[in-house]
User: Fold these one by one.
Assistant:
Number 1:
Amino acid sequence: MPASLLQLRNLSVRYFPRNGAPTLALDAANLSIVRGEIVGILGESGSGKTTLGQAVVTLLPTAAKYDGQVFFDGRDLMVATERELSKIRGRHISLVPQDPASALNPVMRIGTQIAEVLRAHEALDRKGRIQRIHELLAEVGLDDPERIGSSYPHQLSGGQRQRVVIAMAIACRPQLIIADEPVSKLDLPLQLQVLELMSGIARKHCMALLWITHDPATLLGFADRIGVMQAGQIVEQGPTEQIFRHPQHPYTQALVGLTQEFALSERPLVNAHHAN
Amino acid sequence: MACSLRVQGLSRQYQTRNGWRKSTTVQAACGVSFYIPAGKTLALIGSSGSGKSTVARCVVRLERPDSGEIWLGGVEISRLGARSLRPLRSRIQMIFQDPTTSMNPRMSASAIIEEPLLIQQRGTRNERRERAASLMVEVGLSADWLDRRINEFSGGQQQRIAIARALALSPKVLVLDEALSGLDLSTQVQIIQLLKNLQAAHSLTYLLISHDLGAVAHLTDLLAVMSAGRIVEQGPTKEIIVNPQQPQTQTLVAAAEHFKKAFARAQGASA
């Protein structure tokens, strides 16, 4: 059995807000990802999926307390020093954020922003950096890397910006990429393109992906395995096809049923109960 | 009485600055025309940058179109000044994509819902409060929550409050600009059902702006596909989905079909 790249062992996260009761955002999560695997984390808002992603990049808010372990390549990130963590983040574990528009610095050119990532983690000279930037932009499907590199974010379309943040995430060839709802705000054709792009890059460089989403359909034909989250717990895990074909947990069954409704079904929507 | 919406030849361009002294003109919408019969729904579909939000903003007169006509029932509103427009503003209201930016998260639900009534000077303080309470219930929330702040509600609940606010002045036409995107699937189902119920109860006319064909197909009778500022195809929803003519439409339908087929494959059925 291949050694896991990432292993969450009984990971719990509690938030202690200044006013209000503490909440259990993540409840004894157990999950492992091997090199090159694409794992989808499927859950609705409040399920704890974002907390899980934040815990893996060890960027939990200060009001959070954790229990359990996050092993990355054999090391427990929860007990590592900030100095050790800053070497891992960006270089071995990187993040594709949800909203590329706010992730990019609006007053810096694209090339400069990618160079920042490279400068932090790689020992390349200026020429080497420029070449790597062009390679990265071409790899994410952006033709005319020279023009893109010297543009500002607002001069690019939404799709182009999303490709740029992906380029930044893969810049240092990380072993694990965490993506939190990276395609939910994009139109469907663009979603498909980004999924294909990420899948190709992951396979080519043997990168593992932790893909966090609320949309089951985007995981079809993309993720190898899925973990379904509800109220802070991973209620079901398994290979993608198995989750869709034979969902065991009632919550998973409900989600799979909903996916059918939205997949251009001819059946009318079921009459849903009122909001809580 | 229900109200139709007709847009004829709508055009709008923007000047963007491209460095010092240089600027380019972007034709965001060009010659857009469509008609929504009273009490019906039309969805404006297209990828980002196609101009759909520009059309929405012109229709509610958040912006003034450069040319073209907008007929709200029997009244043409594209050229009206602020004073003439004010009494008509109650007839058409907009619901935006992101409730955390379309509403002040620190305001209470009642303050948000009552605000349009306050601005249009409708009713006494008590009457406004009562109206806010009945609207909360109508959108499926409890009137007990009126004094909670917006940031204390979930995303789906916030969007319901945005709908309640839009209904405060008893409009006849609602424009929903990507109002469903970013919401969980189960929340989308609930909001879609709410919108259907409200349409039946109040004979509302809907203009839906969306990039998600799957969600919108459940709500809309008519579909218009936009690309690069122009409507490239329009007609009854079923016809367009079953037989898309234009390449842009085919791309959109194919993307939605892709997920449908992937789902069928995963379930073991033949595609």
Number 2:
Amino acid sequence: MCLAVPVKLVEVDGDRGLAQFSGSRREVGLQLLDRPEAGDYVLLHAGFAIQKLDPQEALETLELLDEMAGLRDSELKNGI
Amino acid sequence: MVFDRLENYRDPARVAALRERIDAAACSLKRPLRLMEVCGGHTMAIHRFGIHTLMPPQLDLISGPGCPVCVTPGAYIDAAVEWGESCDGIVVTFGDLYGVPGSDESLEEAAGRGLDVRIVYSPGDALDIAERHAERKVVFLGVGFETTAPVVAATLGQARSRRQTNFQVMSAHKTMPGALRALVECGDSALDGFILPGHVSAITGAEPYRFLAEDYGVACCITGFEPVDIMQGILSLVLQCGRSEPKVDNRYGRAVRPGGNPRALELLRRTFVAVDSQWRGMGCIEGSGLDLSESWSDYAVPAPDPRLESENDVRCSCGEVLRGVITPPQCPLFASSCTPKTPIGPCMVSSEGSCAAHYRYTL
């Protein structure tokens, strides 16, 4: 029930925003975020954005993992 | 962009590399480990992606009490039905709760008798229903952990600013740390590590779990819901146990900051107070529930007394399943009289209950 999906904010208007995911758009509540901006990636849960996602942190996680495992791009089905 | 491509976190080469590391770390363990995934979302992901089949024999993955629907007591369902009948009101709920058995009947069965029950995706939709039916009372069933409670709090804020007076909430929100303390204290789960809930932690941060590592010596790792996330979490737990250095590790940094979401936490503090709460299968746990604070009393429909034990089906072993004492197939009803089509206990009703996950992906 704590299901939350990563979505991209495409419009922000006060406490309301428009999110795009899987080819569709949906209105989301932004009351729980500090200064949301169009272009931010957020976690969407039950109609509200509950946290901003950090792209830098996401990249670093994968890079660290690949380095640790000695994985090269050619071995990955999906490079970063 | 990295978030557009969930495949990044599902890459077979990454999962295989992590599996090798887990196998190597498990080899040097002095004894097998029991690791509990607390969150129902993790339970589903572990079964859906077959992660349990990748585990070396030294690791036992056990499901925990983190499916809010599963731990909501029957008395709460009874109270919702009673409220709807007493005022001819509209009962609005998340879909997961619809089929969960009360003492006598589920919301679904009550709806069959004529009770007006509506299923929504967001509490905001419940507020819209109240707006469209200004002449009737509307109650939203506030079920869920720290992930969901702020969303309900934000909706209450909207209700007040719209002066929507026919909208109320019956809160059975619960908080994780008290339940995890109860689990490690009761001893019969015998746990070495927790895979901590990713989206609860996006709100709370890591701090509320520190006592688990420091006072009880249980390894902890917050992680996300993709295969690479979960495998990283398991590796962290095995390494912590191998070194006897338990801590709260965070492997979901893209969503979980050390301090969580301060804005959501502040909203929780302004809207709710901590109260004792009844957990199905675990009993009444001190301070593990959230009720609306006094300043929101005009929006509150009281939930049942948390000390009230529900009369559950005596044949049902969901309590033991929720504490990780038995696995779903060890329940005599599992897949015989209790199936997703004819569920007897909540762990089979909820889409993220561990019995439903076992039934769907393991049989």
